[in-house]
Design goal:
elongated; transcription regulation; ARID_dom_sf; nucleus; Leucine-rich Repeat Variant; two-stranded antiparallel sheet; DNA polymerase, domain 1; transcription
Amino acid sequence: MAPKEAEVELHAISRTPEYEDFMAKLKAYHQERGTALEAEPKVGPVYLDLYKTFTHICANGGYDKVSDEKLAWRRMAEQLGIHSSNVASTAFSLKEKYYKNLAAYEIKFFHGKEPPPKDILEDVSAKGGGLLSRTRENFRGAKRDSGTAADSAAASGDDGTPTRERPTPDAAPTSSVRASRGLREAPPQRVIFQPDTGPARPTRHVSGQQPSHLNTPTPGGHSGSHHGTPQQVQHTPVPLPHQPRAPPRGPSGSYNPPNPDNTSASVESYLPRSLQPPNQQHVLPMRPVDTPSNNPAEFARRRHVARSLLEPPRRSGPYPGVGFEGPNIYIRCLMALRSAIFEEQQFALYHLVKISYERHDKFKFEGFPGLSEGLVEKVLEIGSIFYDVKWKISWVSQNAADNFDTLDGNEGTEDILERIDSLEPKEVNELIVPEHLSDQMVLVNEAALTLRNMSQLRENAAHLAEFLPIKDLICIVLSLPKHEWLVELKHQMLDIAEALTPYLEIDSRDPLYKVLMKQLKGSDDRGIILTALRALGRISMNLEATNRLDKVPTAILTKISELMLLNDDELKDACLDFLYQYTAVVGNVDNLVKSLNCEHLIHHLVRLLSHNARRYQVEEVLKPAPKPATSNDPAAMPEDLLQDLLKLEEPERCNQWVKCFFEEVNDSFVTQIAAWQAYQNAFKAALQAIDQPLITPADFIRNSCAAYKSSKAEVWAGTGNPGQVQQKFIIRGIQCRLRPVGLDGRVFVRCLWDSASGRPNEKCGHFFGTKETMWKHVVTTHLKWVRNDKGGFDNKEEEVRCQWADCTKYKKPTKMKLALMGHHLQTHCCQSFNGIAINEKKAQAGPQPSDSLVVHFEETATAPDEQNPAAPPQAAGIPLSAVLILRNIARNVVKTSAQEDLLKQHELGGEAGGWNERLFRNVLPRLYEIMTENKVLRSHVFSLIEFAESERDL
């Protein structure tokens, strides 16, 4: 099986020092060559790394070699990690971007040759290859030959337009002729063979004559009298067996042909001179002559023909309008809109609304000159409904300045708001609407809706931004009085303003800026406020100019700070975008701190840093939990447990013994020989005493592995002496218990009395299941107390010493009553058994708190990086806008006049510190907490804290 190829990493721009150096050289070369460089072209869904692409293509031989190989550009795209659903389109896009940006650079610096001029390289398409050998002579000559020669189109394959050729009837069709290159040819007509039925042998009198059917010319040919004597073909007809023999032919004058229908009447009426009567041999035949009297119709026809020859020829062809279907629906609607005919405008606007909604991506102003003027002029008719004015557009600035109702189409009408304020509104009845007024309002709304739909396309928005009457139209409509009829129209104008402001450079003196501020200040409509905020916040977004947003009234700033308190994410996001643009200017921050209670604004912005945050925790292990102490040898067999196990039969006894003395641990093992020897030592003597056989080693190993599911017998290969491999037969998955466990689950405790051997730290190895049995074992086995006749112990006084573990109470022999010593020993036994219970409770409580640490994190909205899709997600949404506003305030507030005034108050005995100290002092702990818990906002909050603490004495 062939190994799988490593998956190619998704293509992304790697901004390494090599990449930056390469891009600098490439940019300098394009400037020297006079061509445009697209630094980060987009191929499919990703942005192209020109350095990585240039290196990879050159490693494969260069542009010409890759282009000569079939489907090589698809392979290049796949190897570069550019994936797309349309492989062919992605491959051609990669080839085109390389051709435009890197082909000349490759020829110059990789091949060491001079590239062709840009008019035959960058200025033409990336079709074909052969760049190293391309010159003006061979490139232009090839184009001329391909345009004039008839055979060049077919020879060029897919580059030329295939011609529809009809093969000649005599030419045999070839396999290379495709059915799609021409119409089907008619099959050759079949000629039915007709045998000659004439006499088999001509008579002597007609032997010199040629049969008539031999002189008949072939179809499409000519008779021999015009083009020489044709080649005569002699036929010798052979009579068929079933045909009767024809009678012998006589003289020509008496011969009757077998088929008289094909014989001419002149031939039938002809008589030889020898057969004609004597009185008719010298009579001349009479021929009729046409005269006006006997044939007037013929002479009338001749006069008509002669008269027509003298008259001038009449024009032949279709009459006007015949066969002409008219313009398409787009031109039809445009002409109908500009016609000023009401019915035509109804038709046009009805269809324009549908077209702008369904085909807005294809319906562009630049393709239909006059469409924007027609729509704007139609919407301007709204002024005559509410004012005694009829707005017009003039492209002569002097006419617009002299006439009150004329708008300047070249430079815009600067005093449009003053003109509107000077108008007297009409009294319009909202309850009773005349028919003509209702129809007019419908057309005005449809024209405005068409403008709104078309402005959502970027190309149309950029086109309308250069059409200055649209600004005057927005000001006129938004300045109309409040009326129920105008709600929809004003919303459409605000949508148009939102689409146009990214392409407009306007300041506080512009009428459009004033109108949008007025709508934001005086309206309580959520839609109007939301759209006005977006329109103001996006001024000059697609231009290099800065959106200063100066002279914003205090009432608007207060209203925005109050709107952010609402539970409306869309409105909150629009307010934050406006504040971000507003606080980017130092003068605006000065106005902000003087107009609002900025402490409350800062606290609310800090709360928004955790907007819709999801909290989660991760447990970090600081130190692995220590493994419990283990023993390599099985514990000694307690007497009580031995009696219980002897009551069982094999293999149950072996199985229970393993569970009592071993526990299940996946990464541990015991040797088979150690387990077998421990089993022998525990049961051999006891089984011999009751005459029972011991289990065989093979059965013991098999039953031992069946005690736990994860245990199994295997051969372990380890290292022994240097250079030697040692093998052990083990049971994997079990380890020895420190304390044996009974059949009922109770734990047996070891006696901790010092061993009789006297060696330090060596204790008694016996295990007991109860405190009583352990106490009896100590007093009888270790202290050698002797029972009396009643089964008890005499309470006499003796010198005794306690050797229990590390007990120091009676370390030296002490004279005391035996009862006192017995009570002392009971405390040791109770402590041993109680310690088992305490340890079990601790084990159930889990790991120690010091071994692990629970870390809390906070996750807010994120978005992928458009420039580098493989990069980690970036901060986005409301939290990002809030932290950027806070950073703008912290950076710019120290540059304002309000900062200087506050520092002067400090010199006069006021509160220490500037505006950053006053605004951010109470929220710094929360900012530090967010910086540690929110990974995506960490860098932004860090820069905010740097600006906020820049003036503090640390």
